[in-house]
Write the structure tokens for this entry.
Amino acid sequence: MSLSKAGVLSALSRRRRHVVYVVSDHGFGHASRSSTVIAELQRRSVDVTVISSVPRWFFEEACTDFGYIQEQTDVGVHQSSSVHIDPARTFKALERFWSPRAFSARLERLSSLLAPLSSLRSASCMSSSASGQSETGSENTSLAAPSAEKPPTTTEEDTANSCSPSTDTTSAATENTSRASPANSPVDLVVYDIPALGPLLARQLRVPCVGVSNFSWLDIYPEYLAAEPRFAAHIERHHAAYSHTQLMIRLPYASDELSSFPASVPIVDLGAWLGRRSQHSTHSVRCTLAALLAHPPLPEPPLPSCARRTSDPSPLSLTTRSPLSSSSSSSVSISPSSSASSSSDEDPSHAGFTSPSPSSTPSPTSTAASSPTATLPWPASAPACTTLEPHHRLLLLSFGGHDFPIERLRHEAVPPGWRVLFVTRDSAASSVHSLGRVLFFPQRLLDHRDVTYMDLISAASVVVIKTGYGIISECVQAAKPVLYVDRPDFAEHAFMVRALQENLPCALVNVEQVLACEPELFAKADQLLRACRSASSPLPLNGAERCADLILEQLTTYT
């Protein structure tokens, strides 16, 4: 039985819309701001499926009941440290990610999961789209991959650095075919931040596409042409992919105003901050952290370091809750097949997290090898030996999940009246540890108490960061002063410094000052606290609402 076009459009008008949100794997910043838009879309009765290798628990800090496909979406840049880029490794990773066989398999895998849902919609709605966009969508897909060549063999280093868990072929294939997106409805739109995979997937599904970002990789990769001229091919590839975007939403303080983005794509300014915020008062979060300092170790068996809260967020509480597995979430998780894992180039040091995927439980040996706290001099059961009082000023060290040489921190140099907080991913730790006035909160303990990273920012007096839109937007939302370190190799840095200077009390420090806990570090922090009393952002903070408005306008335009 066939339906007329009018009948199909009538049916579509009565159902919930379905958006696929493709999020960059580079760090947590893209996922941070994307999760606020996803939550706002859900509030407006839009179903959302997330595609990213950033763990599902990170998105669950802001939104619930979403579909989730664990897949590497882009390369971004690889980093040799928290603040330094490694162009050679970045190029090598781009070559693997965009090799014809690997990329085609990735696109086919995603299309097979989503295309059955979008076929009805695309057949009825895209035919009425602008003719220019239809012609663009009919081009050959070969632009997505380099000229035919055998992809490089995956090395032991690549396998060790991959964020995707090694998966049994049979079980992975079974899971992919047995579990679907959250809405058994056509895909209406692809939103991406900012992988070039996003517009190519939208074209494959024959649906419109919207980009959201303050930069694209077209602003970043040209910086490395001098070191490696072959970056030019990947710049052209990203430019061609981005050209299939129907609308680009430009966030404040965009790199070079996104001047490198394809001129054919309409760009609209968001004009507001897009970032997560805590739902709890500073006082309540500080009380919870103070209680955790004296709390006994968590019960065994250990909670996986990547497990997160259920889909029902509960308020901060000092009562003990049983460890929860991420599998209890009501959101749908679709893991990649084993071929995805073997071809993935994802590296924890560039992706922004060192813990394993939500679908795998770390072994003691693998955890010790990857944990940034593995060399710290304390047993897993050693309790904290200091306190967090209401009058203490709290310095939060936030470096985007990238490995940070915390073992070099001179804890004995922290002055009286200050506490330094650092979140560890040591899955063997079951309670808070301290060295002098430095407090090390295990991620699994914070998870157990439903303390989010936004809560930690709310509790902090001053936040020490490497510049990035995600963490800056969260500090703006919480009105927290910021000490930032230089990022000489990243093109976005200068624009993010301007954002800090125009929105928050801030000051430049260097990594060595932070590690040495130099008096100047805390003197600057005290100065910022005094200046913070009269500080306010010139931009509104309702970026998620504005972004959802623009996305819904596109849904209306193309249906």
Observations:
- The chain has a mean pLDDT of 76.
- The first helix runs from residue 5 to 13.
